[in-house]
């Protein structure tokens, strides 16, 4: 029996963006061919598929959740078993591309272990789009995820990233929970050297998108954009 295929399906980052404004229309044919979806959140996945205008009835589809509470092992292997038996599936993240800073990587890894083909579809990635627009080094960069929450530990992490950016000329990408964005920026401005460049990329692909790169000295002297409680990518270079 031929094995199915795992499709990594991107969705809009912003709720204000239509599906096919940020993903190719060709994705629809693949989505239409599927009736099994492994998703970060069932409710938002159903909403995405409805906005995508799929031909199947949403209630006829099967959904299984794969999120930050899922642990690799029996649960993930059970998700993959139908694919191994010939049924193709789609992975849908809460926003953007699945598998990048996203639990979808677990099911992709399980498919590779079983010799199942994993196919990434084209769509928006806030990480890549922010480095594209930053003007910082796109030849060598690293995504570091979340920095520590406690200020002393976070300050040490910031200085370590700054050293890597300076000595290795590698752009350092990181994120924060939106409600802590302002505190993070305040610490970046107090800890980093004046010549260090900092990109702030907020609400990417939305009508309110902000992508700005300035030195720390320039950020200190100028007005800070309103990024409180808004999804933001930070890049140091």
Polypeptide structure, described:
It contains 9 helices and 10 strands. The strands form 2 sheets. It has a 5-stranded parallel sheet with strand order 3-2-4-1-5. The relative contact order is 0.15. The model has no long low-confidence stretch (mean pLDDT 95).
Can you lay out the helices and strands and say which pair or pack?
Layout: E1 5-9, H1 19-22, H2 27-32, E2 36-39, H3 42-51, E3 62-65, H4 74-84, E4 89-92, H5 104-113, E5 117-120, H6 126-134, E6 141-146, H7 151-167, E7 171-175, H8 181-191, E8 197-202, E9 210-215, H9 216-221, E10 232-236
Parallel strand pairs: 1-4, 1-5, 2-3, 2-4, 6-7
Antiparallel strand pairs: 7-10, 8-9, 8-10
